[in-house]
Every structure is written in C-alpha cells, then in structure tokens.
Amino acid sequence: MLLIASFYFYMNWQPEFGLLLAGAGVITWGGARLIEYYADKPILAKRILSTTIIILIAALFTFKYLSFFADEVFGFLVRYGLAMDVPHFEILLPVGISFFTFQALGYIIDVRRSTIRAEKSLLTVLLFLAFFPQLVAGPIERAKDLLPQFKSRHIFDFSHLMAGLEMMALGYFMKLCVAESLSPYVDRVYDNLAVYSGLDILLATFFFCFQIFSDFGGYSLIAIGAARCMGFRLTQNFRQPYLATSVRDFWRRWHVSLSRWLSDYVYIPLGGNRVRPARHYFNIFITLFLSGVWHGADYTFFAWGAYHGSLQAAQAAWHKKSRFHLPKNLFTTILKILMTFFLVLLGRVFFRSGSIGDSMIAFRKIFTEHDSFHPGSKILFFERILMIVILMAIECRHEWIESRLGLPSGSLTAARSERSIYRSAFFLTFIILLIVLFGNFNTSPFIYFNF
Length: 451
Fold this sequence. Notes:
single chain
C-alpha cells in the first residue's frame, strides 16, 4: 500500500515520470544484486558499480543539466564564428530527481562497500526510492537506516502521532507564516535590483535567508512528521542552522542529509583530511562546489558552492595554522553566530540572484549605495520581523534544551515522543493559532521541489 500511495503521490505531478522513477529503481535493484553476486570478483563488481552509477547520473544530467550545457556550448561556438542552426530545447525537470538519484547512488555504493546487503525484493527498493514523505525534497535517506524500517511491523503509537503532528504543525508555520510572508518582498527587490538601494537589497537578502530556511526546513519537518505519524524515523535535515558558530558548523546543521552524503561519498573518498594540507583544502572546496552544482544548472549555484567551499577551506587553514582563538563565553558565542550568519547571508546573494551579473549588482549596491530605504508597509514589515523572531525563539529554545539535556544538536525532535500530552497539546494549539492568525494560504510551491 505504501508503494502504491508513493507512486500515486509522485505521478500527480507528471504521470510519465513515474516510469523514470520505476526505471531508476529497477536499475538500482539489479545493479546492487549483481554487485553482491560478483563480490568475489572485485574487478567485475567494480565495473557493474561504475555502469550503474553512469546510467543514474546520465539520467540526472539529461533532465537537469543537458539544456544548460548545450546552450553554453552552442553559445561558445557562436562567439567564435562557428554558428550552427541548432534548435533550442527545454526538458521538463522531474520533481525530486536529485534527491532520489543520490539516494540510489548511496545505496549501491554501500552495497559495494559491504556496508549493507543487497535487498532481494524489487518492491522494497522501489519503496526506498519512492517513499512519499521524503521523495520530492528529501531528506536523502541511507539504506541502512530506512530499509530495515520497511521490514518492521508498525503498530499505532499515540506518542509517535503527537510527535509527528507537532513537527508537521511547526513545518506548516514555517512555510505559511514565515516563508510566504517574506517571499513577496524578496521577489520584488530581486526582480528589480536596479531600482533598489543597497539597504533594500540587504534587507531582502536577510529575509531570503529565513524564507529559504522556512520553506525547505518547513517541508523537511512536514515530511519527517508525516513519516513519524506512521512510525518511521527520518533524518533530521536541519539543526538550528542560524545558530551555527562557524561556516563548518553551519554545514553540519544545514541540509544535513546532503552534507553527510557529500562527506561520505565525495570528501572521504578524495582523502578527507588524511592528505597534505593543500589537498585537504582542495577536497573541502570541491565537495562544497559540488553541493552548488547539485542545486542546479546555473552559474549562480556554481558560484554559491565555490563561495562556501572557499570559506570552509579558509577556515580549515586558519584553524591549522593560527594560534589565535577567541575565549569561550556568551559574548564570543554570539559574536561568532553573527559573523557566521553574515557570511552565509552574503552567499545567499548568489543563490537568489537570476544571474551572476545580478549578483554583482547586488554586491555593489550592498557595499556602496545606502541612500534610501523602502521596507514597504510598516505593518507588513513588523509582521515579517515578528514571524522571524518567533521562529528564532523556537530555534533558540530547542538549542537550549538540547544543551541542557546533553543531546546532540537537532535531537530534540526525536525526544518529543517523551513529552506529556498536555505540553504537546499546548504546543500544537499555539502553532495552529499562529497559522490561523498569520498564515498566507495562497502559497507558492516549495523552493526545493525544483532541485
């Protein structure tokens, strides 16, 4: 039933893409079975792994990157007088293709590493890739974590239901009250950068930081909460990212499932930090750069990935060579959080801009033009600030409770099942009241559906 429901859910966007998802599942299942069958023949198993990876990446490249690179190649030829009459084509991007492709790649690589056994049931592998709560926008799950849950018997548990409802309610608050209230101002400024001042662009970028966190983080909470209601536990994808004290710490808290995937399947195989310093910094840079490439076929995403790769490589070099360290106290912690947030904010200019040229306009104005400021309606402005304050208050509360209880960052969600029914009911009532009072129900699609 879960498999049928998952494919029905996915095919509501574009029915024919159900065939793509099913094809990816069959290739992943067959490749893993062959890799395990020929485990005693390493060369053959490696060839099967390489072939399976190439097929999966080729499908991702075709749908997500082919149009971009074709346009760039033909544009290059035109600039050098080699014009060709080639029709422009657009390929519709299947929803969530980056997520289920990376999930499939992680599974077959883990089988090759003997981390897990190849799953015998094709239907189970299909469900692993198509599980509807996290199919279209993650989190990117590991086979060792999710596959055993499909084989376990799930019985109704009221604590799981309440924990799931809490997460879903908070996710809807983040989407409807925060992201949707901020997006009109962000869109208005970034669609007309030439007519706005640096202060306006800085405010829009500040708002965008919380818009994208609330949009993507909100969906992740809805997905995790829906799975929890059914008794499944998914990876916490966000762990109070804007309370990070360094860029490296930010990536431990932001899009956690992607960060772990890149670490395990890119950074560590490249040598991680077990190599010469220069190679170590390169490994950091290329891993974060690939994060940008994963997000989309556009130079703005490439620049965003390169920006974060450069920041984190510079931080690694600083910690390795510098003897200067700030003392640990509340003041320096707040200072580190603000510095990290500002660096992340600057990177968001690349992420939100329509082109590199727009990014350069935004940066120039942010640092040189402060002659006017147009925050819009005062009522809407203070409402947006209020939503951000409430969101950060919830984030700070989670961070404080986890610190007090000695829990890893982001673990409070897992501990919610231990709450009393009264506290859960109060939290749900509070969040639902906020949604009713401040929610914008003329919503746009979740941003990460495009990735």
